[in-house]
C-alpha cells in the first residue's frame, strides 16, 4: 500500500485543496500548441518569513528531486531540473504516469521517499537510488505534482497559477500511488510554518496565485524553511589524524556566476562509512589549484565535482554556514541545484 504524506494541518477541511469545478462544455476548441521538449523550472526564492495576503497559496516543501514528467503519445519521459532523462531511475513513477489517461501533459513536481511518519526523507531517497553514482532505480518514490505546464495539447505556462492548479486538481482528482497531487494548504502563513516545523517538515512554499509560470528565481514562488538545507560543492577537506575516515571537515563552496565562493565547512553528519567513501572519492579528485584560494594547515583540495546536501542553521556575518550538518551527496546531474550565494540571508 502506498504511504501517504504527513499532513501539514490536522483540520480535515483545511487539508484538502479547493474542490475542482466541473469543466465548461461550452468552452471553444482551441488550436494545439507544440509540446516543449523541456521547460526550464520556476524556482523558489528563499525568504525568512511567509508572505501575507489572499494572493498567496501555500504548500508543503518537499525534500527530494525536482522533476518534470512529460506524458507524450509515444510514452513518458522524466526529466531532472538540469535537463537529464531519468525515466529509468523512477520506473514506478513513469508507470503511474502512463496510467493517468491523458494524451499529452507536463507535470512539475518533486520525487520523494516518505518515512513512517509520512515526511519526505532525502537520505532515504538517495539510498533508494543506490547513493551518488548508484545504478539502482527507485521503486519507493512518490512524485508529488504541484503544477501543470502543458495539457491536452495546450501550453499553460502563460496562464496564472490559479488556472493551472484548477486543471491539475481536476486531472489528479483522487490519484494515489506513485503520482499524487501536492495539496494546497489554507491558513495564515506564519501559523502554517510553525505547524510544519513542529511536525518535523522542511518548511513551506508560497506561490502567487495570479502569476504565469516563469522560469528561474523570479519571486513568484517563495520558500520558507524550518531548518535551512542547500546543495554546496565540496572543494576539499581538512585532514585529521583522529576523525573517522581521516576527514575532519569538508570544505564547501557556492556559486557566484561562473565562480565559486567559499561558504565554510562541515564536520558533522557523516558516519565512518560516509567519511571513508568521501575520502576515497576526494583523493581521486586532488588538485594543486583549489577552486577557491584558501590557507590553512592540513587542507587537501579537490576538483569541484562532488555536490553535498547540507543542513544548517543560518549564516555567519562573514558569509559562512552556521551549525552545518552533512546529509548526503547529490548526483552530478544535480549541478544546477548548487546554491547561489546571491540568495544568502544572513
From TrEMBL:
<dbReference type="GO" id="GO:0006310">
    <property type="term" value="P:DNA recombination"/>
</dbReference>
<dbReference type="Pfam" id="PF04679">
    <property type="entry name" value="DNA_ligase_A_C"/>
</dbReference>
<dbReference type="InterPro" id="IPR012309">
    <property type="entry name" value="DNA_ligase_ATP-dep_C"/>
</dbReference>
<feature type="domain" description="ATP-dependent DNA ligase family profile">
    <location>
        <begin position="134"/>
        <end position="225"/>
    </location>
</feature>
<dbReference type="InterPro" id="IPR012340">
    <property type="entry name" value="NA-bd_OB-fold"/>
</dbReference>
<protein>
    <recommendedName>
        <fullName>DNA ligase (ATP)</fullName>
        <ecNumber>6.5.1.1</ecNumber>
    </recommendedName>
</protein>
<dbReference type="GO" id="GO:0003910">
    <property type="term" value="F:DNA ligase (ATP) activity"/>
</dbReference>
<dbReference type="GO" id="GO:0005524">
    <property type="term" value="F:ATP binding"/>
</dbReference>
<dbReference type="InterPro" id="IPR014146">
    <property type="entry name" value="LigD_ligase_dom"/>
</dbReference>
<dbReference type="GO" id="GO:0006281">
    <property type="term" value="P:DNA repair"/>
</dbReference>
<dbReference type="Pfam" id="PF01068">
    <property type="entry name" value="DNA_ligase_A_M"/>
</dbReference>
<dbReference type="InterPro" id="IPR012310">
    <property type="entry name" value="DNA_ligase_ATP-dep_cent"/>
</dbReference>
<dbReference type="InterPro" id="IPR050191">
    <property type="entry name" value="ATP-dep_DNA_ligase"/>
</dbReference>
<feature type="region of interest" description="Disordered">
    <location>
        <begin position="1"/>
        <end position="33"/>
    </location>
</feature>
<comment type="similarity">
    <text>Belongs to the ATP-dependent DNA ligase family.</text>
</comment>
<keyword id="KW-0436">Ligase</keyword>
